[in-house]
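Annex B. Sample input.
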Amino acid sequence: MAGWAAPLSEVPDPVFAEAMLGDGVAVEPTEGLLYAPCDATVISVHAARHAVTLRTAGGVEVLIHIGLETVALNGAGFEVHVADGQAVTAGQRLIGFDLDLLARRAKSLISPMVVTDLAGHRMALRQAGRLVAAGEPLIELTRGETAAHDIAPVAGPTVERRLVIPMIHGLHARPAARVADLAKSFPAEISLATVSRRANAKSPVGLMTLGLRHGDAVLLSATGEQAQASVAAIAALIEGGMGEAAPIAVAPESSEPSASALANPGQLRGVMAAPGLAVGKAVRLFRAEISVVEAGAGATHEEAALSTALAQVRARIAVMAGEGDKARRSILGAHAAFLEDPELTGQARRRIGEGKSAGFAWKAAVGDYVGALRGLRDPRMAERVDDLVDLERRVLQALAGEEDRAPDLPSGSILLAEELLPSQLMALDASRLAGICTAKGGPTSHVAILAAAMGVPCLVAAGPAVAAIRDGTCLILDADAGSLQVAPAAAALEAAQTALAARHQRRAAARAMAREDCRMADGTRIEVFANLGSLGDAQGALAAGAEGCGLLRTEFLFLERETAPDEDEQAAQYRAIAEALEGRPLIVRLLDVGGDKSAAYLPIAAEENPALGVRGVRVLLRRPQLLRTQLRGILRGAAGAKIMAPMVASLAELKAVRAALDEARRDVAFEGRVDLGVMIETPAAAMIADQLAGEADFLSIGTNDLTQYTLAMDRGNPELAAEVDALHPAVLRLIAAAAEGGRKHALWTGVCGGLAGDVAAAPILIGLGVTELSMPGAAIAEVKSMIRTLSPGACRKLAAEALAQDSPQAVRALSNTFLTGGA
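Annex B, continued. Sample output.
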C-alpha cells in the first residue's frame, strides 16, 4: 500500500497500538489500492470488505485492516478483487477503496498490517517514519531462536459460524477461560473475530481483549482436523451462556474520592463489595514494584527461567485451589488458564527471542494485555485486570526467588491497600481480619467475591486518601453505608462498638434458639425454611436452624457442565438432599434456566430482552423430555418432596406441568401423594392466584422476579439497584392478592424470595397471610428470634398500614418503628 509508513503504536486503537493482535506496521494510504505483501492464501475477506487475512506457506498469518471503524460503511467504497481460499502472489491486487469516501466517513485512514502468527519467526525489520511505494518491503521476518515453538500450518476445511454473545457480562475472564479450555481439546486452529480484531480461541487473554459484550456479534471459525466438531461445541458453549449471573453494581471508573469524602477528611466514601460493620486498627499493604532488568542472558537461559517460574506458580495455584471453597477454586481456575495461555506466553517468549530478560518479557507481555483491557472502557472488564496483575507479580517473584509473605495481622485488623490482589487476600489469616478497604477496585472483582465468601466487610474505590492512613490508626468500616471513618471521635467509636456488641449478642441469642420450632408470641406456627442450592447447603441449613427446605434450586445439577444430568444422577442427588434434611419438608423447584441462567447444552436463541423471553416453565414445556426426566428423578429420589413450577404466568402452563407429572408417576409406578405448587413470580400469576390455587396444592412467592417485573426495573441494572425494593407498596399489594387467592382454596402461601430473609419485611408478610418463609441459612436464626416476639393481630395492622404507604422507604421506616417499639 503506497503511503506514509508509521509505527503500530501510532494507530489510535489500543488493540493495534498495544500489539494485542500481533506486531507490525501501519500505513496512511495515499492511493486507494491494497496489494498482497507476499505469496499467500486468502484466509478471509471480511463481509464489510475492509479487511483481509492471509496465511503464507510457512504458517505466518497477516491481517490487513483498511482504515479504522470502516465496518460502519458496510462495504461502501470498497471493491474486493479476491475470494476466500484463493492463492495470491506478491503484488496482486486485493482490495480497492475510495480514499475520499473513507476520509469523510471513517475514524482514520491509517491501515494496520499485523502479523498475527509469527509461526516461529521474529521481526528483524520494520519500515516506519517515511513514505513508501507499493511493493516496497515493510517487514522482514527471520527464523528466531524460539523455533522450537513453531506451529505447523493447519490444512483442511474451514468452518465458520456467526454468534451473538448472550452472557450478561460479555466474554470476561471465567467464560473466556472456559472457551479456551474447550478449544484446546480440538486439534483444529480456532479463532473468534470481530470487525477489526481477531483472537486465538485457545487464548483466554486474547479472547478477553476482544471486548465482547452482551449482544455483540462475533465470527467463530476453525480450520483443519475436527473443524466442524470444534465449531459446534464452542458455539453451543457460548450460545448456552455458561450460567452467567445478572450484573452487580460496578464501581465508578474514577478512583477519586467523592465530594462527601473531600468535605469530611475524617470519613472516606466508597462502594460496598461485601457487607458488614467492623471496628479495628489499620494495617497497610502497599507493595513496592518489582524491578526487572531489560537485557537477557541469552534466549536459552531466559526461556528456562520463565518455564521454571511458570511451573512454580502453577503448582502454588494447584495447592491453593485444593484448600479453598467454590469461589476460590473458580478464581484460581481462571488464573491457571492464563498461565496456559499461548498468546500471553508467546508474547513473552517473542521478547525473549529479541534479547530481553524473562522478567522484562513477562512484565511487558502482561502489560500489553492490561493496557488493552483498560482501554475497552468497560468497568467490569477492567476489573479483570487485577487477575493479570496478580499473575504478573507472582511470576516475577518466582523469577527473583522471592516468596510473597503475607503480613502478620494483629487481631481485628482492617487491611488497607491501593488494590488488593486475589492471591494476597487468600494468603491472609481470615480469623484476624476485621475488614478491607481499597483505594481502587470494584464490587464485582475477584477480591470482592472472596471477601464476601469469607464474611469479611469490604469497601472498594475509596480513593487515594486511603494511602495516607497510617498503620495502627483506629478505623470504623461500615461497608453497608459505604464509609470508612478515620480516627473517629470517642463517641463515634463507642457507638460503633456498642452496635457491634449488640449485633453479636442478638446473633448469639438467636443462634442458641435457632433449632427450636418457630412460633409467634401467641403460639401461631410460622415455618422458617432454607433456600438450598446443593447437598452442602442442606447440611449447613440444619445447623442454622432450618425447619426444612422451601426452595431447592435444581440448577446446581444442570449448570456448568456439557450435558444434562440423566435420571439416575438426579435421583441420587435428590435422595442425598432429602436424607440430609432428615425427614423435614423439601420443596423442589423444577429447572429454572433462561434469562440470566444458561446451560451450554440448552442453547436459547439470542433475545433482545431475555428476562421476558424463554425461561422457567417455558423452557421445560418446549423440552418435554427434559421435564419428564426431572420429574421421574424427583419421584424416585425424594418420594416425599413437593414440586414447584417456576415462572408460571397462566393456568394452562400449570395444567401442562400437572399432566407431565401424572405421566411421570405412571412411568415409575409412583402411588403416593405429590403436591404440585406454583411460584408466583409475575404480576399475572399474582392477579390470577385464585385460579392457580384451584389447580395447585400450594403457592410460593418469588419476590426477586416479582419485584423487577412489577416495577419494570431490571434488578441487575446498577443505575436502578437502589430503587428495586420488594417492600414497594405495589409489590406488597400483589403479595396480598396472591395470599388471598390461596386462602380462597384453603392453601398455604409461602415466600421464598429475598424478601423472606429481610427482618423488616417478615412481620408485614405474616400480616398479609404468609405462613412459610424460606431464606438463606445465615438469616434464619435472626428472623426466627424476631418472629417469636410478634403477635398476629399486630402484624395484620402493620400490613394494612404498609399497603397504604407511598414508597418502599416509608414502608421500611414504618416496619423499623414497629420492631423497635415492640409488638
